From TrEMBL, chains A, C:
<keyword id="KW-0501">Molybdenum cofactor biosynthesis</keyword>
<dbReference type="Pfam" id="PF02391">
    <property type="entry name" value="MoaE"/>
</dbReference>
<dbReference type="GO" id="GO:0030366">
    <property type="term" value="F:molybdopterin synthase activity"/>
</dbReference>
<comment type="subunit">
    <text>Heterotetramer of 2 MoaD subunits and 2 MoaE subunits. Also stable as homodimer. The enzyme changes between these two forms during catalysis.</text>
</comment>
<dbReference type="GO" id="GO:0006777">
    <property type="term" value="P:Mo-molybdopterin cofactor biosynthetic process"/>
</dbReference>
<comment type="function">
    <text>Converts molybdopterin precursor Z into molybdopterin. This requires the incorporation of two sulfur atoms into precursor Z to generate a dithiolene group. The sulfur is provided by MoaD.</text>
</comment>
<dbReference type="InterPro" id="IPR036563">
    <property type="entry name" value="MoaE_sf"/>
</dbReference>
<comment type="pathway">
    <text>Cofactor biosynthesis; molybdopterin biosynthesis.</text>
</comment>
<dbReference type="InterPro" id="IPR003448">
    <property type="entry name" value="Mopterin_biosynth_MoaE"/>
</dbReference>
UniProtKB/TrEMBL annotation, chains B, D:
<dbReference type="InterPro" id="IPR016155">
    <property type="entry name" value="Mopterin_synth/thiamin_S_b"/>
</dbReference>
<dbReference type="InterPro" id="IPR003749">
    <property type="entry name" value="ThiS/MoaD-like"/>
</dbReference>
<dbReference type="InterPro" id="IPR012675">
    <property type="entry name" value="Beta-grasp_dom_sf"/>
</dbReference>
<dbReference type="Pfam" id="PF02597">
    <property type="entry name" value="ThiS"/>
</dbReference>
<dbReference type="GO" id="GO:0006777">
    <property type="term" value="P:Mo-molybdopterin cofactor biosynthetic process"/>
</dbReference>
<dbReference type="GO" id="GO:1990133">
    <property type="term" value="C:molybdopterin adenylyltransferase complex"/>
</dbReference>
<protein>
    <submittedName>
        <fullName>Molybdopterin converting factor small subunit</fullName>
    </submittedName>
</protein>
Length: 160, 83, 160, 83
């Protein structure tokens, strides 16, 4: 029997609906007294990109694999850092600037583990989870190209 | 075997998924890409830069030299841009 | 005149009342379309400490200097990273395990800046902002001792 | 000059703040600590390990060799444990 105090619940959802950070944090921390640090990362649709002003963003994903891939990285995060909880929510569909796209929550006794795990999860979501962004702007519609800086960010977590 | 396409690979191929029966001489992911590319101009366009294309077998990323034997589902897509 | 789109509002509050993360994030991001990443850190009162089980924590601060010191670090963060907003709320008073103590929010176009600035601010809050914790446990009441690991965490941000 | 004490320094001194008039020979923070320590056992106890004590002049952290001339408010406290 695993004590609820030492458990690390992992929640992964891919959904069209928006998320409520406060509710997700409450779900992660409710009736627990062993959590000292909660880090949240919200990724938001931006209007200002490198090139033309973005008017909307469409997120496509690979159902089934997306959940599996995120689960693998969440499991790796919980094995690498002493975490007390992980929540990952990735939205799919069409978004306007200012709207939420992704949420990563990590809870731990200490802040370093929560910060590092959240960064690790975001770096891998960017480069390895099967999601693709299509941008709409005044100059037309096009698929977002992968950034080398995201590959570099993910590579720093590779164990040698 | 089922094949799925995503993002601009899907748009160029013109379909999201299909069932294919490649000949037994097609053993790896890159051989499957070459075989698909020969089917029509749409496929040739989708796979014109094979090194850019990512592949997954049964929901796990694989390299281009991965064997396709036993695969239930193979997917092709551009580099991921989620998060 | 500074365009509201490029401004980096900094909010610093020291208060007894709890904070609402969702409301603070909304205040930071409202009617803006240039923010791509929001990182939040919540520090929570823990029952399980290195020694005896903590039943309550009292936070004392140096009014006036606490605000000034946090402001200096927030200004340094906004000069070091391209931020679109910073909110820092530190509670004072007596807390039970599970209750919020501190909130740091950072907003930026890109995730790395938001993550790094939030970590920087937390490391400096821990070692340099004039707050002191007193713990109550079954074995008595005592002031929390500073951790060498917190000094080390803060030292990594020192420019050589 | 106003002096403030926090956390266990405050508890040991037995007061949160006071106004003091040290002699002109007391020029630095560490000289002020030595002078205060000589006032009573309570002060001696509060400052028994002077290297542990942190000081601030007018809301800014200072080192023990900082001059106190012109200071409006000097504060003494243990290492910070907030956040």
């Amino acid at each position: 029997m695993i004590s609820p105090v030492t458990a690390c619940p992992v929640t992964i959802r891919i959904q069209a609906d928006d998320f409520d950070i406060a509710r997700e944090i409450a779900a992660l921390t409710k009736s627990r007294t062993d959590i000292g640090a909660v880090v949240s990362f919200s990724g938001i649709c931006r209007a200002d990109d490198d090139s033309a002003k973005v008017s909307a963003l469409t997120l496509e994903h690979y159902p089934g694999m997306a959940e599996d891939e995120i689960r693998r990285h969440a499991d790796e995060a919980t094995s690498r850092w002493p975490l007390n909880g992980v929540t990952i929510i990735h939205r799919v569909g069409r978004f306007m600037p200012g709207q939420n796209i992704v949420l990563v929550l990590t809870a731990s006794q200490h802040r370093q583990a929560a910060f590092q795990a959240a960064e690790f999860l975001m770096d891998y979501l960017k480069t390895s989870a099967p999601f693709w962004k299509k941008e709409e702007s005044a100059t037309g519609t096009g698929w977002v190209e992968a950034h080398a800086r995201d590959d570099e960010a993910a590579a720093r977590w590779t164990k040698s | 075997m089922k094949v799925k396409y995503f993002a601009w690979v899907r748009e160029r191929v013109g379909k999201a998924e299909e069932t294919i029966e490649p000949p037994a001489t097609v053993r790896t992911v890159e051989e499957l890409i070459a075989w698909l590319s020969g089917r029509s101009e749409a496929y040739a366009y989708a796979f014109e830069k094979p090194k850019v294309i990512r592949a997954a077998i049964d929901h796990a990323h694989v390299k281009s030299d991965a064997a396709i034997a036993g695969a239930r589902e193979i997917a092709f897509f551009p580099p991921m841009t989620g998060g």
